[in-house]
Amino acid sequence: MQLGLNIDHIATLREARKINDPDPLEAIFIAKNAGVSQITIHLREDRRHINDFDVKRIIESSFLPINIECSIDEYIVDFICKQKPYKVTLVPEKREEVTTEGGLNMENNKIKDVIKEFQKHDIFVATFIDPNLSALELSKSYGADGIEIHTGYYANLTLMLYSNLKNTHNSIKNLELDKNSLIQEINTSLETIKNIAMRAKKLNLGVYAGHGLNYFNVKEIVKIQEIEELNIGQSIIAKSVFVGLKEAIKDMLDLMRV
Ligand code: PXP
Mind telling me which CDD domains this protein's record contains (predicted)? Predict the structure, then answer.
């Protein structure tokens, strides 16, 4: 299973001062040496972290394939087509959200046109979807090359079970369940992810997963052999503050070895 490192939060830190430090580009060289297979960046409509200039220089300079997460906004699609990254992952986007909270609403027909547009420019396209069959089948019927399964629900359940989140103001209210219910729900969510991954593989789609994965919850996802690649950002960048990026990546890669 390969690791795609999401480096958005290096740019988040840079934007805290609006200067040019730390530089996300520097992370790519460290990531490559540490064993990362792909770099993921999200060009958000509000440019809260990665900006157009980052996209250009990262694509020009990276030795690793670049996966750009983006919405179906017309300007963004046009801009990314011109930059020609290796891969695009279509994601839903809400201005007010802290992070990408759920998968795409695949009922939106415009997604099909956007997929075709990227493919016309020789860009591989994945859709970021919740683990459900109808989103998977629509991705296939729209001609996507792959899917990325949103693991956020599973990840939130594990946070509620294994961390002290429940006792803080960040507690996820709708997941305030007793221990046994949480364990049951975690097992069900893993089964759902596995079933979607198996079905996607049968449909000949690339199968990826990500969101909220960390050093405590990644092992169970790694057991799902159909998943080829995990895209992980926040937990690795957070750990790198304390141990350095190379070490943080290596620790994650160790957990990803089966
Ligand atoms: N995959 C996709 C499609 C995402 O939108 C994100 C968040 O930007 C990630 C993976 C990484 O999530 P996290 O930062 O929680 O590891």
Answer: PNPsynthase
The CB of 233 under 6 Å from ligand 1? The reply is yes
pLDDT digits (tens, 9 = 90+) for 208-248: 999 999 999 999 999 999 999 999 999 999 999 999 999 99
Distance CA 122, CA 130 (A): 26
User: Is the pTM higher than 0.85?
Assistant: yes
Active site residue 121: no
Q: Set out the domains of the chain in order of their start, with CATH numbers.
A: 2-151+205-256 (3.20.20.70)
- Angle (deg, nearest 10), helices 74-83 and 110-120: 20
Query: 93-103 b/e with 16+ CB inside 10 Å = b?
Result: beeeeeebebb
Q: pLDDT of 18-51, one tens digit each? A: 999 999 999 999 999 999 999 999 999 999 999 9
